[in-house]
Amino acid sequence: MPVSLAELLQEPVQSVIRRERDTLEELLRSRSNRVVLFGSGNLGRKAVGALQEIGDTPLAFSDNNQKRWGTALENTPILPPKEAAALYGSNAVFLVTIWNEFHWFCETKQQLTGYGCDSVIPYSFLHWRFPDTFLPCLLNDLPNKLYRERDLILKAADIWADPASRDLFEANIRLRALGEFDGIPGRSVENTYLPLDLIQLSASDRFLDCGATGGEMLRDLINKRGEEFALFCALEADNISFPTLETCRDSLSTNLQTKLRLYNCAVGAERQVVRFAHSGLTGSRISEEGLPVIGPSWLSVSTTHKTISGAFHSWSMKCCRNMISICGLMKAMGSRPSCMPFRRSVSCKMPSDSCCFGHHQRSDNGRFGTCLRIVAGQLLSK
Prior knowledge:
single chain, about 375 residues, alpha/beta, Rossmann fold, six-stranded mixed beta sheet, three-stranded parallel beta sheet, 17 helices, 16 strands
């Protein structure tokens, strides 16, 4: 039986730091440092160089993309999954090096174990061992930062109105603390940006999408509401994604285009120039290795008489009355099933407003719940 959240977070920070450093190599040693990388994209390419730093050269890549079978990456052959499993499933670690919005680790683990692989591990341990290369990245960061926020996380764990919500919250903490994906819900069966059974949309709604990528939320809105909305403001700093966003706009009717505002910029606590790593994917982020972009002032969200401002500077705050966007939480937490248990909490706290935070750091897990309570109180006190 899993230990309680309180027991889990009792581990001393120095012990957590040692675990971050040692877990990957302990797992590799259990298979005589034999490793296959499952996923031959950008993360897989970086993984080869990282592993070579500790004297380990991958035996092979494997990938579900048939077009890559028989080719090589970083002088390492790319094999079909069944062939890789037949050769190495019982004698090597299969390290999953895939991180994007279309991938679910549990599905890959089930696939590989079904082929006979008996040691399938997530990218998390690779990230922990080489934080300077991989972290922070969206929900991924070093666990010790989470443990330093123990009191805040335990406080947030007590606000949920139903067991399902608390269980999901705890599963997300375990994922970030231990690299365990077992409690995370599976793939969504529908787009999760605007679930109509959770919110009611009207023709007067205005949307602010901070991190609009290629316009996924905009397309979902148009599919569900057509032209029945007032305004859609889309901010995207990634210079690869932004042209896709412009193409999306240009494909729309003239009337819809008049309701759109596109901004090629970042969102932060203050106006400044930052360096941004452009990838065209969800891994785009502020990075010293990136190109400079301008970040505007924090976008305060005004209510009738109050302003919810930049106090929560590490969050992307997306909605208030007459301004609704809920893509961030659902993307950050994983999928539609991830957000469903929050239905009761949201309906109790915010019957006429929607609020969403897309968090980027592990330590923000405790802040989500407490900030939700604070913001709900502000909105309900109008």
